[in-house]
Amino acid sequence: MKFFAPILLCAIPSLAAPSASEDVRGSCPDLPTKKNLTTSITTLPDPFLFSNGKRVSSQHQWNCRQKEISQLIQDYELGAKPARPTDFSVAWDNVSKVLVVAPAVDGKKISFNVTIKYPSTTTGAGPFPAIIAIGGASIPLPASVASITFVNDEIASQYGIQSRGKGLFYDLYGSDASAGAMIAWAWATSRIIDALEMTPDAQIDTSKIAVTGCSRNGKGALVVGAFDKRIALTIPQESGTGGAGCWRLADDTYSQGINIQTAHELVGENSWCSKDFDAYATSINLLPFDHHMLAGLVAPRGLLVIENNINWLGPQSTYGCMKTANKIWQALGAQDNMGFTEIGVHSHCRFPAEQQSILSAYISQFLFDTPSNTSVMATTVASSFNETKSKRRGVHNPEFYNVGMGKLTSSFAVHCFRTNTVLDTENSTSVRATLQLKDIDTQGQGRLVENLGNDLRTLVGADALEERSTQERTGKRRWGLT
């Protein structure tokens, strides 16, 4: 059966769900080699454009593009994440509920402890869903979920720039390893999941694992989720710049006199990123990526971004960056798998009760397979949008809204295209017709992404859109377009 409908897409390809063999059929383009970057990109880079200039048009190609984005971010910002060592052992103490993870490389061996706290209100022997808390949890953990903790500072120290190269990770891979602290934590978390897979007596369901952390550890939580596809749900809390915020948006916000953390400040403060990132901290526009693309490495898995409106965290940057990132989930037909919630007027890393319902919804959806309303893109600073200041800088390139109070988002909202998409649901293929620019800014009035839903209802029909929305909420079409 084939469905034909005009769909409004904002610089997003229509990605059909792959067949069972599509992920292994064909090859990906060669990954770009590391080089000195010289091309300035003043807008948020297009996540759907390969480095070779070709555009993503299928699920398989998006998988390839994710690999490319991962490589770019490791090369220029975070450093390389090593694979699991072949020499790898695990010990489990069923009394203390401590897992000892012991990898070895070239005769050098380290070990670190992982503590598991089991659900207090659940009967039965498991296996249980679990939340790995980087640096401990600042969100309320449900009693029905196991919690997993380890000392991430022991893996890679984060007590200032002098901490670079210190910690168990560097004992194994050398103090001159390219990885910054966040990639080292991501590596350790992946080894924890390896160990849990090898230890059925630990009774953890490794298909139902979430990761969280707040502030600097929230930055780390986003990196952890981005670099391990086994993580079902990623919950970075108040991560700000270097986490949910985009570097370019932070620089623009800072230029307006707002006290926000920027890349230049961050690299002088701590060792979270690779030393190689220092060269670009004052030349962010040279990077072929930004953090909407880091978040996009999580797609289409679950991502709930929790933020605060403290200036230093950059609520303008985080909202604009994650609003843009959500377009990736939209292209995958999984937009409700990614949400953003920001509530201010509370202390840093103090979880407000108003965010409990959406947190519970994400945990229910991704750790218990209970259909829940996970649609959220909420901020207390959205009312500061001033559309008349939006500027158009090109048809295919995403761009910022440069609006009141330093509020920024991307021109996925400005440059929308009307395309006729034919979707063959039996063969899971998608054919894109010629794109035509939908001129929506002739008066210099940018159209905000909030209007996307209304535009879709006009073009597709409210009944059809509601049917699709219902299918997505019930999981019937979670990974593909209807």
UniProtKB/TrEMBL annotation:
<keyword id="KW-0732">Signal</keyword>
<feature type="signal peptide">
    <location>
        <begin position="1"/>
        <end position="16"/>
    </location>
</feature>
<dbReference type="GO" id="GO:0046274">
    <property type="term" value="P:lignin catabolic process"/>
</dbReference>
<keyword id="KW-0719">Serine esterase</keyword>
<keyword id="KW-0439">Lignin degradation</keyword>
<dbReference type="Pfam" id="PF22244">
    <property type="entry name" value="GCE_fung"/>
</dbReference>
<feature type="domain" description="4-O-methyl-glucuronoyl methylesterase-like">
    <location>
        <begin position="105"/>
        <end position="333"/>
    </location>
</feature>
<protein>
    <recommendedName>
        <fullName>(4-O-methyl)-D-glucuronate--lignin esterase</fullName>
        <ecNumber>3.1.1.117</ecNumber>
    </recommendedName>
</protein>
<dbReference type="GO" id="GO:0052689">
    <property type="term" value="F:carboxylic ester hydrolase activity"/>
</dbReference>
<dbReference type="InterPro" id="IPR029058">
    <property type="entry name" value="AB_hydrolase_fold"/>
</dbReference>
<dbReference type="InterPro" id="IPR054579">
    <property type="entry name" value="GCE-like_dom"/>
</dbReference>
<comment type="similarity">
    <text>Belongs to the carbohydrate esterase 15 (CE15) family.</text>
</comment>
<keyword id="KW-0378">Hydrolase</keyword>
